[in-house]
Amino acid sequence: MHFEVVTVVPETVEGYLGASILGRAAEAGTVSFGVTPMRDFGEGKHRQVDDSPYGGGSGMVMKPGPVVDAIEAARAAAPAGERVRVLLMSPAGTPFDRAVAGRLAADCDRLVLVCGRYEGIDARVEDHVDELVSVGDFVLTGGELAALVVVDAVSRLVPGVLGNDASAAEESFEGPLLEYPQYTRPRNFRGHAVPDILLSGDHAKVDRWRLDQAVRRTIERRPDLLGDRATLPEEISELLETLDSAPNSK
Ligand code: SAM
């Protein structure tokens, strides 16, 4: 899968994409990353990409010409037959979550992520993208961090990007539960000991304990994830019933 970030500030994304798990995945050829500098499509001798807003108001708005030219160049760079999707990062977009990440990972070979800056982008650019995506109900100074959130979350769903794909299947949001608590050495940390069961060597008991902990955590922290209880897997419903009948143990 290829990710192309279209931005006026390439240096804000290059370091992240070249480091750690994503950098290694790119080196191995499991994914690839590119950055399209929007300034290359700027107008006039100063390569202008922004202008003052029609109707007045503070700040600058990104001009449609350079943004759409950059989008078209990014689309044109795709090899024939690739499934390309152009995302415009915007607070007014579809809220990004695990389901959206999964859909993009499954349905696309190439994601083009367009980053706004300043007061935003001329509204007519929306006619030239496939989807608007928001990473939360807050405003960032630019779309680059939002694009990195999407690239990172989608990349780790691409087979081979994570060292151990099996561990991803147990993570938060893969099902209706948050992940169970994790521990590593030392066994005692500032008076807080690792639960004995994790040292028992009994894998079935450990699995049972982890599921129990995941259910408890989800009830405490994100009960909204459990949704309609009638649709939950039986082992989760059974645990919920046990906890319901002993509320003080939650
Ligand atoms: N004036 C705009 C508004 O009120 O909706 C905000 C513009 S913001 C300062 C500049 C750029 O950052 C946006 O064009 C968008 O690309 C990006 N951005 C800001 N917040 C975002 C969010 N929550 N999700 C995705 N992109 C965001």
Molecular structure report:
With 250 residues, the protein is of the alpha/beta class. It has 2 domains: 154 residues, 3-Layer(aba) Sandwich (Alpha/beta knot), CATH 3.40.1280; 58 residues, Trp Operon Repressor, Chain A. 35% of the residues lie in helices and 16% in strands. A hairpin with a 2-residue loop joins strand 8 and strand 9. The longest helix has 19 residues. The mean pLDDT is 95. It binds S-adenosylmethionine. The site of S-adenosylmethionine has 20 residues, from strand 5.
Classify the fold: give the CATH topology of the largest domain. Alpha/beta knot
| Distance, first to last CA | 42 Å
| CATH architecture heading of the largest domain | 3-Layer(aba) Sandwich
CATH superfamily of the largest domain: SPOUT methyltransferase, trefoil knot domain
* Major sheet description: 5 strands, parallel
Describe the protein's topology.
Layout: E1 2-7, H1 11-18, H2 20-28, E2 32-37, E3 50-51, E4 61-62, H3 64-76, E5 84-95, H4 98-107, E6 110-114, E7 131-134, H5 144-155, H6 165-168, E8 188-189, E9 192-193, H7 203-221, H8 234-245
Parallel strand pairs: 1-2, 1-6, 5-6, 5-7
Antiparallel strand pairs: 3-4, 8-9
S-adenosylmethionine binds at residues 89-92, 115-117, 119-121, 134-136, 138-143, 146.
Task: Write a short abstract of this structure.
This protein is of the alpha/beta class.
What key phrases describe this protein's structure?
elongated; two-stranded antiparallel ribbon; 8 helices; binds S-adenosylmethionine; alpha/beta; Alpha/beta knot; Trp Operon Repressor, Chain A; 9 strands
